[in-house]
Amino acid sequence: MKNVLIPVLLAVFSFLWVQTPEGAEAGRIPVLAETAKHRPQSGRTGSDGTVTVTPRVEVNKRSVPPLKSSSGGDEVRSGWLPDVSRRISSKSVMIIDAETGEELYKKSPDNPRQPASTIKVLTGMIALKSLDGSDMVQVSRKAAGMPRSKIYLDPKKSYRANDLINAVLLASANDASVALAEKIAGSEKSFAEMMTLRAKLWGAKNTVCRTASGLTAEGQQSTARDLALIFRQAMQDEDFAERMGKTKVRTSYGTVLHSHNKALWRVNGAEGGKTGYTLAARQTYVGQFSHEEGTIIVALMGSETMWADVKNLVEYGFKKQKLLAAQKRKDRVDQQLAMAD
């Protein structure tokens, strides 16, 4: 298979060419914004084996401003914040304001590390926008043979795409991830290229995907900053956000899938998140949390005490937002008084 020319895609055409592996169904495969309902029934395959171009259409319902540097000088002008770095084990951290993109806290945010299952955010998003929920997905022996976490798919059966997407996002199922990847792109390798491209289009420039599951693979990497960027973009999609907020869901064939995101019932304000763990990555996490002063996204990598870290980081992020909001209100009052004088 010929390599996907990412620079050409990003800088010149701004849409994705997806190649069809031998034996895969020839058809136009959208990256995100088009669903199966909007796809043509068949595609044209050129002499070089590439499939008809799919225009890149952003999923966001509103534009998302880029990340901005923190404005928390002097601990937000004497408001004082605790040194959260002493209370966490995570090697890399990024906390951002989900609305403005402002950085609220960072610790080695650009150090590349294995992302583990947090990368399934990309898998789930691409599947949501590439397949109709009622599409049937055949399970290969490779997919069925993936190690845990898994939902033990039967290679003799087909499953609804909607059930497999929920299995990926809630139960972190590796077998469902590979089954969806093969359905959409013909092979997990080709699908991983789609994931990498989507990450780059969302500004996650240091993310490279080699698997649909996040299982450790040579050359696969992401950063805390990139995970925050990816999750911030994904949560703009109502379908994705709704699924991420569920603690459990029943499949069409009767199995109940439980979310691995314990923050939903352990941490106040949790709206959704994705966990990850491998020996190489250690514990990883990215999630969104809201309170009266706004919404934050917390991403962490290389943790040994993930849930304690999440709680401490959310508390820090909320307090930082409150102090910033109070300072902005004070600045406005001071400005009005100065103008009155």
Structure overview:
- This protein is of the alpha+beta class and about 350 residues long.
- It has a single domain, classed as DD-peptidase/beta-lactamase superfamily (Beta-lactamase), CATH 3.40.710.10.
- The strands form four sheets. A five-stranded antiparallel sheet has the order 4-3-11-10-9, with helices on both faces.
- The N terminus is likely disordered.
- The radius of gyration is 21 Å and the shape is elongated.
- The protein contains eleven helices and eleven strands.
Global mean pLDDT: 84
Going across the major beta sheet, what is the strand order?
4-3-11-10-9
Pattern of helices and strands: HEEHEEHEHEHHHHHEEHEEEH
CATH superfamily: DD-peptidase/beta-lactamase superfamily
CATH architecture: 3-Layer(aba) Sandwich
- Residue ranges: pLDDT <50 for 5 or more in a row? 1-31, 33-62
